[in-house]
Design a protein that fits this description.
By secondary structure, the chain is α+β, with helices and mostly antiparallel strands. The chain is built from 13 helices and ten strands. Helix 11 packs across helix 13.
Amino acid sequence: MAKTMTTTAGNPIGDNQNSLSAGSRGPLLMQDYQLLEKLAHQNRERIPERVVHAKGSGAYGTLTITEDISKYTKAQVLQKGEKTPMLARFSTVAGEKGAADAERDVRGFALKFYTKEGNWDLVGNNTPVFFVKDPMKFPDFIHTQKRDPRTNLRNSTAMWDFWSLSPESLHQVTILMSDRGIPKSLRHMNGYGSHTYSLINEAGERFWVKFHFKTMQGIETLTNKEAEAIVGKDRESNQKDLYESIENSNFPKWSFEIQIMTDEQAKSTSFNPFDLTKVWPHKEFPMIKVGEMELNRNPQHYFAEIEQSAFSPSNVVPGISWSPDKMLQARVFSYADAHRYRIGTHYEALPVNRPLVEVNTYHADGPMRLDQPVGTDAYYEPNSFNGPIEDKQYVEPPFPVNGDGYRYDHHEDTQDHYSQVKALFHLMSDSQKEQLFNNIAEAMDGVPQDIQKRQIALFDTVDSDYAAGVKKALGI
């Protein structure tokens, strides 16, 4: 027997098909609360989409630790044998919520681990580097990826103008324009923490770390032509593939691996290990196997569980922490702040974001106070009424901070924006290089020639063959 429909206050509804009107032809009566409620709720059924990473897909799974890395970290979630429930959200960066999945773009790779010590969020991409390394430039970069305010169209000129004036972007641009710029599916791409983080062990020793998730399905990609054919028929190709794979028990898996660097090594590297446009060479800092990530359960309600999911690098657990990476430092603030604006003050109380452990804070009121706290005299801190207090055992060990406070030119940190790009270029096969040249030429279509030439000059600094290949593809 069907249940009786009610209002949001639980009042039974007698007619949900016909509006209350004065006569059969109207007009309508203001007292028709159910009509007003339905219309008002519909107006509010869309929260603001994410400024970046608006189009996303997600699933639940588990992180299983198979190796002993306790000499590097005391984090319970990373101890051998630990199995932690988790949520993953994959996304494109530039497009709006209705954009096609199979577009050339960086993919977001956001992970939330519901650990026994609170939530640990790892908010990364499917690339190990990024376009900029100073957060002051991030809003400017994102503006170039969005719509021109005059034409309301995507603007290739803005993109290449910014990149050609920002040589630190070369590494990420090369990856984006390579064959890996369009993954075949979300299951066939790697994920990276991208930033440098830190691990802290029981002795209070800090190690710098890079997090890697290597797809166990293998890397598979699409060409521009293949992607265009898919987009013409299906704008949700990645969403469909991920959902159907999990529904059919073809659970995607990733090998969880890390790179470790000591503080002494960090002081002597030939590059800044906290620079988001750089990778750590695997020969110097070899990969260390940690465990395995598997996605094995689809969400039951996309809006509640994926659209309202909120990831932030501010969420770390004892034994895992941050680094001096300037981009990471800014994201620790900006991600949580974006969620407060987009979803509401108490966004972390939503079921998908709520940790498994008890939460004890002195946060007060504001939108979305979902719980019903029992009145207490301990509503401030410090207090004399047995409210929650700090525990000094969780204070992190100190880390060195050197130099005067100043707005340091991020280009002067290093003039070497090219050697790692050169190494990547030399790893590419002839076929991959040809794809790179052609992808860049297609992306530069309609861009003024002076901007094209300025970008080609950067390619030439990397390798003359790089510049020559792009010039040939452009017909210059």
